[in-house]
Write a structure and sequence with these properties.
The structure holds 2 protein chains of 2 kinds.
Chain A lengths: L4 E3 L2 E4 L5 E6 L6 E7 L6 E7 L2 E5 L6 E5 L5 E5 L8 E8 L9 E2 L3 E5 L1
Parallel strand pairs in A: 2-11
Antiparallel strand pairs in A: 1-3, 3-8, 4-5, 4-9, 5-6, 7-8, 9-10, 9-11
Chain B lengths: L2 E3 L4 E5 L4 E3 L2 E3 L5 E8 L6 E7 L6 E3 L2 E6 L4 E6 L8 E9 L6 E2 L3 E6 L1
Parallel strand pairs in B: 2-12
Antiparallel strand pairs in B: 1-4, 3-9, 5-6, 5-10, 7-8, 8-9, 10-11, 10-12
The chains are: A mainly beta, B mainly beta.
């Protein structure tokens, strides 16, 4: 079975631009979470979506938004990019919602903002 | 507030040595989950173990073992007879029962030299 997939793998943008990152969860998984990992740090939680509804939001500005589609895939959008948005963006999926569910991570999208 | 502390930034060992990675957590919840993830240079987070707060039994999986002690709020990870392939960044993480949000530590970079 395919794992969590993310696209694109790498992305280079300039300040002020907008970016959309995509995630496809493991088949049957209904929960998707997004994390930002700045170089040298642990991943930071951005959003969780379950059954197309937002279930959690981390401490990120409103420039960050996300949505989940009927097939449970998800998009993360970042507007007005700043240099500090350069990071590895990780998507994780799980069967249900709640800490008891194991989360499986995708390979990530590496975003560079120039 | 929840917090995970991995005080060891980087550890270097020679192959076949045993190594222990420390993790200390803080939470006010009585029900929570603890995790260890491995992040090789490719960037993808690989799930290693999940432990719930009611299960303090130590676990062994091959060369890996985990020691969970609620009394000291610690969840340490030991690799026995380390191998070069164990070289990676290891993250300890915490989540509450009713959320998928993972709170990660800053990670420990393990380098195993031949």
């Amino acid at each position: 079975d395919a794992g969590v997939t993310q696209s694109p793998t790498h992305l280079i943008k300039t300040r002020g631009q907008h970016v959309t990152l995509r995630c496809s969860p493991i088949s049957g998984h209904k929960s998707v979470s997004w994390y930002q990992q700045v170089l040298g740090q642990g991943p930071q939680f951005i959003f969780q979506y379950y059954e197309k509804e937002e279930r959690g939001r981390g401490n990120f500005p409103d420039r960050f938004s996300a949505r989940q589609f009927p097939n449970y895939s998800s998009e993360l959008n970042v507007n007005a990019l700043l240099l500090g948005d350069s990071a590895l963006y990780l998507c994780a999926s799980s069967l249900g919602s709640g800490g008891h569910n194991e989360q499986f991570f995708g390979p990530g999208t590496r975003l560079t903002v120039l | 507030a929840q917090k995970v502390t991995q005080a060891q930034t980087e550890i270097s060992v020679v192959e076949k040595e045993d190594v222990t990675l420390d993790c200390v957590y803080e939470t006010r919840d009585t029900t929570y989950y603890l995790f260890w993830y491995k992040q090789p240079p490719s960037g993808e987070l690989v799930f290693l173990i999940r432990r719930n707060s009611f299960d303090e039994q130590n676990e062994i999986s091959g060369r890996y073992s985990w020691n969970f002690q609620k009394s000291t709020s610690s969840f340490n990870f030991t690799i026995t007879a380390s191998q070069v392939v164990d070289s990676a960044v290891y993250f300890c993480a915490l989540s509450e029962y009713n959320t998928d949000k993972l709170i990660f530590g800053t990670g420990t970079r393990l380098q195993v030299f031949p």
